[in-house]
Amino acid sequence: MREVKMENTHPRDPKKTYGLMELVKGTKPTVGLKPDKMVFTWPHVLIREMIIFVSVSALLLVAAFFIDAPLEAIANANLPPNPAKAPWYFLGLQELVSYSALVGGVVIPGLIVTVLILVPYLDRKKVGIGIWFAKERALANSLFMLFLVVMLILIIVGTFFRGPNWDFVVPWEAVKGH
Amino acid sequence: MDLKISAVKTYLNDVFRSIFRYGKMPRDAEGQSFAVFNNLFLHIHPVKVTRHSLKPTYTFGLGLISAVLFLVLIFTGVWLMFYYIPTVDEAYNRMLDLRSSTNFGFVLRNVHKWAAEAMVVFVILHMARVFFTGAYKPPREFNWVVGVFLLLLTFGLSFTGYLLPWDQLAFWAITVGTSIAGYVPVMGEDIRSFLLGGDIVGQEALIRFYVLHVVILPGLMLVLLGVHFWRIRKDGGLAHPSENEDASAGGGE
Amino acid sequence: MGYQDDAAAKSDVDRRSFLGSLGWLGVSISGLIAVVGNLLYLKPTVSYGPASRIVAGKPADFTVGAREVFENAQFALVREQDGFAAISLVCTHLRCTVRTSEAGFECPCHGSQYDRNGSITGGPAPEPLDWYKVGITPNGELEIDKTVKVSQGTYFNI
């Protein structure tokens, strides 16, 4: 191999404060990045985004044609339904409110929001980033999973297991009763 | 004659290039870079992203799906506004009209309804994804906080929209829901009367929920979404295993 | 000489930062006033809802032991030996409308139960039902003022 001196092919301009350090093979800018781990946004990201956009819209349209949004009789303050239920995502709260309005309706939701906001300031150790259910984060992940499961159970109980007078009912029994 | 045609072509080309600077389908690395940083709408993206962030099993596209649902909701919501009247006398009739007489009215209402329900679900799933992948760790702490407020806004939008059909479901859900707010110590009743504009769920409550639902909350949502997306880029894209303290030990691709 | 110059420069910066802080203080106070003003604007002062004073009829229309429900005004007019009373039909739990029952009142939404005086006998209700002030109009008709609450057991006698 013949030695090529860089000073000969790319002579340094004495007025410049910077200079060519090295020549490498390749066609793409790779400054400061691991080249094999990066891909261009166009087309890799944008095509995926379009696919999701189109699929979501299509699914919604199909759902809209086959499942009607509920619409009951016109509002009437004199005819409370039995039971009166909040929107489904608040039924967990309503379940708690049925035990204690202050604790279930104010204290617990307030605590949930406060703790959620504080999460990244309480748990700052840089482990388990970018990995699903990392072993190092087993405790944090278990706690959050427990929180999600409890909320889900409360919502399911509020939605399906609460009948007239907010009494506990078993959904399949209620269907038989009608 | 030939000269004139070529002059016109050059002129038209100049006009085209004044709008689209790069003006051709990207075929090489340079073009792919220009596709992003020369385009206003694509400029929310970086030019390049890690392969890891594109793995379908990493994000499941949950955040993106939430954002798409929000766009769908804005579109269908604005369209519904052409017919909806936020008064106690008219609101329910307009629901019936949408269902029976308005062309494709039922489609817009149904899409709006199901997209809203789906958005609540997907925003929660997106939050769970971020938690379980430890993606809220420094430097992304603040974006998690922004995300919590986006979740609260999602609830607020869904809840305020719930009243607008003015049917029994709406009326009692909002009666019960706002009564829960009344249990807040000291300022509970103030919050309730601020939301309802009075002591009962009536005309004042309907117009307040309407304004919150179509202007105030979506406006806040757009601003916070802007911050949320911007922070993703400023915080170095999606969380990547190479950011771990012991990243030298390996990690994903 | 140089020393004095430095001192002058220093006090100059101090004055500047002092005025700066003053400016920020002014802006903050103005902002606070604006926020409070806007919130006060949204605080309802006029009630556009149903009338809060209801004329219920001649006292003679009600026999002792009667319990007449005024649906739209959401109260029940009660006549006992002691006189007249107006008991709210709004459940104190989550404001559903209660209905009359044999024992008193019950809420269909979440099962709160009250006796005939509106005291709690069961369910999640935290407080007894409200009692409204009962009065009489110049032409001798009963008038209920829903803006004035009275304590339980306050009966109105003619």
Structural overview:
The complex is a heterotrimer of chains A (178), B (253) and C (158). By secondary structure, chain A is mostly helical. Among the domains of chain A are: 37-66; 88-177, no CATH class. Helix content of chain A is 50%, strand content 2%. Chain A has 6 helices and 1 strand. Chain A has helices spanning 6-9, 41-66, 91-97, 101-122, 138-160, 171-177, and one strand at residues 38-40. In chain A, helix 3 (91-97) crosses helix 4 (101-122) and helix 3 packs across helix 5. The radius of gyration of chain A is 30 Å and the shape is elongated. The termini of chain A are far apart. The model of chain A has no long low-confidence stretch (mean pLDDT 83). Chain B is mostly helical and 253 residues long. Chain B folds into 2 domains: 1-48, no CATH class; 53-239, Cytochrome Bc1 Complex, Chain C, CATH 1.20.810.10. In chain B, 66% of the residues lie in helices and 1% in strands. Chain B has 10 helices and 1 strand. Chain B has helices at residues 2-19, 29-37, 56-59, 62-81, 91-100, 105-132, 141-163, 168-181, 188-196, 203-234; one strand at 48-50. Chain B is flat. Mean pLDDT of chain B is 90; it is low at 249-253. Chain C is an alpha+beta fold and 158 residues long. Chain C has 2 domains: 1-43; 53-150, Rieske [2Fe-2S] iron-sulphur domain (Rieske Iron-sulfur Protein). Chain C contains 1 helix and 10 strands, in the order H-E-E-E-E-E-E-E-E-E-E. Chain C has one helix spanning 2-42, and strands at residues 53-57, 67-70, 75-80, 83-88, 99-100, 104-106, 113-115, 120-122, 131-136, 142-150. Chain C has a 6-stranded antiparallel β-sheet, with no helix packed on it. In chain C, strands 5-6-7-8 form a 4-stranded antiparallel β-sheet, with no helix packed on it. In chain C, a hairpin with a 4-residue loop joins strand 2 and strand 3 (75-80). The N and C termini of chain C lie far apart (96 Å). In chain C, 26% of the residues are buried. The interface between A and B is large, with 76 and 93 residues. Strand 1 of chain A pairs antiparallel with strand 1 (48-50) of chain B.
